[in-house]
Amino acid sequence: MKSWKLSLFIGSLIVATTCFSSSSIAYMLNVPAKGKVIKDFIPAGWVLENQTAGDLNGDGRDDLALRIIKLGERGNLPRSLVVLLNTKTGWQRLAMADNLFFCDGCGGMLGDISMQIRKQVLVIDQLVGSREAIDVSHSFWIDRKSGKLVCIGEDLHPYDRAGGYSITDSRNFLTGKRIVHRYRGNSRSRIIDLKLVKTQNLKVSKKLRPIESMNFEAIMLSSPDPNDN
């Protein structure tokens, strides 16, 4: 593993591994396919941490993305996602993702998660790190063929807050295009002055991954090193 990745993960890798394992075990509990109220979809021993509403399937009703967190001592608690469709007869579970989020305490000084649903797309943004940080954004929509919630876009933005080195790595799974921009910072300047030093036009697989298969730890490890210019 490169030095930047070591620096970013050294304080959280052990905790993160524990969180992911705990999350998988937690979903052996019963989470119903249908329910009348939101609390029907929250497993025993878990609580709702945050939620966002918006129309995912184009029927004019606001659907829900629930971020839930396991009860326990703060600092190493797993988070999971439950996505619900709003139907005429109540709520219907569309998807669950055990490993999409970093766990409580695994995000470092900057740790933050945001969710929103816009234009039938669920967008989840996660920021982790301190001096060396990475902003990870995912876009999901319902695949018409399979009816599953799948990842259509992945944007990684690793950067060094002190030196100003930065990368934008945008992966579009609908077009199969991946564009990587590398920036170099001027560490002698009081104001970080970024200079574009390299652009790469690459390809990615058009295979659409269901949200259940997403693993935040593996995604972060796939990111290029911003200091490797």
Which helices and strands appear, and what pairs or packs with what?
Layout: H1 3-9, H2 13-26, E1 34-35, E2 46-54, E3 63-70, E4 79-87, E5 90-97, E6 112-118, E7 121-129, E8 132-142, E9 149-160, E10 166-172, E11 177-184, E12 195-203, H3 216-221
Low-confidence stretches: 9-27
> Rg to the nearest angstrom?
19 Å
Number of distinct beta strands: 12
Shape: globular
Number of domains: 1
Share of β-strand residues: 35-45%
Mean pLDDT over the full residue set: 86
Output the helix-strand order.
HHEEEEEEEEEEEEH
Biggest sheet descriptor: 7 strands, antiparallel
Fraction of helical residues: 10-25%
Number of helices: 3
Helix and strand content put the structural class at: mainly beta
Question: Strands of the biggest beta sheet: in what spatial order?
Answer: 6-7-8-9-10-11-12
- Terminal residue distance: 16 Å
Task: Please name the defining characteristics of this protein.
229 residues, mainly beta, 7-stranded antiparallel β-sheet, 5-stranded antiparallel β-sheet, 3 helices, globular
Structural features, described:
With 229 residues, the chain is mainly beta. It has helices at 3-9, 13-26, 216-221; strands spanning 34-35, 46-54, 63-70, 79-87, 90-97, 112-118, 121-129, 132-142, 149-160, 166-172, 177-184, 195-203. It has one domain. The chain contains 3 helices and 12 strands. The strands form 2 sheets. A 7-stranded antiparallel beta sheet has the order 6-7-8-9-10-11-12, with helices on one face. Strand 9 and strand 10 form a beta hairpin. Residues 9-27 have low confidence and may be disordered.
